[in-house]
Design the sequence.
């Protein structure tokens, strides 16, 4: 058993994914997963995990204990239970149905003593890497300025993108190429990291990556000319309407009805597509997705995954039963059937588990963990898969793009990115 645990930890240190034996739960280190996609640069753990300033000196002792609610929280929840409306009662029932599954996954995580001891190391960065910048550019504001069409990003193009003599790294920049940054597809067709400069900030695009920074009105520009060039993995993280986000002015939100106009069917691959949708625990959104959004997109065979958030000491970031601040988020997965395929050639989706728990230490602003490598076995159609990510997140200087995994951009509506993922 010790040898198996050791082997799994060694595999985790290489891949960034730790699989728990006999459980539908996995632990992900996003920094390791992302760094596997770079050839020359690295994501700094200090930047990604910036919300955890201090690394704890002690870790959990391995006992499978789920934090229980405090007396104060219990009293608050008891008072609130008498005035819950119908949607809140439905949301609470969903939580109760998922609770045993989440507890089981958390217990599997707590039994992995070698992983728990290793967790604090995830936050230790390379001293040679630059520290977190004091302030990042606000692309929401930039995209709304009248000068937005005039903004350009300078790409540092190496000579024929060939490795330097006697080494594995690309040669130094041969020329600078300026391209519009908004409403323009920016690509790195080489197999090496590409440096880009914009307003005194440097951004990194790993090999075989491209992005399209725009709002929802330009999403149709990404529809492929031919269905065989469609995407067989579509990951969507909408800027859902959220009171907390609105109060903190983190980013502008999007009314639900606008999502109905996303051309998901036109973006889908002719041999089938796996659609992944991040969703909050708000019951109104769940009803909207199940009754309107997924039917409009043609998504069927729905499964639900959970992202369970933990601290570097192995404890949950919050109490499991706290009504308004659950320590987990949900994502719904489903398939769009292939076009022009008879029943004998329709892809089968039995391999997609009905429930799975993804455990990780959240980054700044609860940045979603990269899922491409984890989901590649469930993607229908040809491999390597063609992936498109629709996100409402920020462009982060120093480690912007990560090729085959979800890329986060931000705008008043949407930023979009596409790429590839392989087995």
Sequence:
């Amino acid at each position: 058993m010790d040898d198996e645990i050791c082997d799994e930890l060694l595999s985790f240190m290489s891949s960034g994914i730790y699989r728990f034996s006999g459980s539908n739960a996995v632990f992900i280190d996003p920094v390791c997963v992302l760094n596997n996609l770079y050839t020359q640069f690295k994501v700094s753990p200090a930047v990604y995990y910036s919300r955890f300033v201090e690394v704890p000196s002690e870790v959990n002792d391995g006992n499978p204990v789920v934090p229980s609610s405090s007396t104060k929280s219990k009293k608050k929840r008891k008072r609130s239970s008498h005035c819950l409306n119908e949607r809140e009662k439905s949301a609470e029932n969903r939580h109760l149905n998922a609770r045993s599954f989440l507890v089981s996954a958390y217990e599997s995580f707590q039994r992995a003593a070698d992983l728990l001891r290793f967790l604090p190391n995830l936050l230790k960065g390379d001293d040679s890497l630059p520290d977190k910048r004091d302030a990042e550019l606000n692309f929401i504001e930039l995209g709304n300025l009248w000068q937005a069409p005039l903004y350009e990003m300078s790409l540092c193009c190496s000579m024929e993108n060939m490795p330097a003599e006697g080494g594995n790294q690309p040669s130094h920049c041969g020329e600078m190429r300026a391209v519009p940054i908004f409403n323009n597809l920016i690509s790195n067709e080489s197999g090496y990291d590409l440096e880009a400069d914009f307003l005194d900030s440097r951004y990194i695009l790993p090999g075989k990556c491209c992005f399209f920074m725009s709002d929802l009105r330009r999403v149709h520009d990404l529809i492929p000319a031919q269905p065989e060039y469609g995407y067989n993995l579509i990951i969507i993280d909408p800027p859902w309407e959220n009171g907390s986000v609105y109060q903190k002015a983190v980013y502008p939100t999007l009314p639900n009805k606008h999502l109905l106009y996303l051309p998901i069917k036109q973006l889908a691959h002719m041999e089938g597509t796996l659609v992944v949708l991040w969703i909050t625990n708000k019951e109104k959104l769940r009803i909207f997705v199940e009754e309107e959004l997924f039917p409009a997109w043609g998504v069927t065979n729905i499964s639900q995954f959970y992202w369970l958030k933990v601290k570097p000491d192995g404890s949950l970031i919050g109490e499991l039963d706290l009504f308004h601040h659950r320590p987990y988020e949900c994502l719904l997965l489903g398939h769009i059937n292939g076009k022009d395929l008879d029943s004998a050639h329709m892809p089968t989706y039995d391999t997609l588990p009905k429930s799975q728990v993804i455990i990780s230490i959240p980054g700044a602003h609860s940045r979603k963990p990269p899922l491409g490598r984890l989901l590649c076995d469930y993607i229908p159609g040809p491999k390597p898969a063609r992936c498109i990510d629709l996100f409402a997140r920020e462009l982060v200087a120093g480690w912007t793009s990560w090729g085959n995994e979800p890329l986060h951009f931000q705008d008043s509506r949407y930023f979009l990115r596409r790429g590839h993922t392989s087995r």
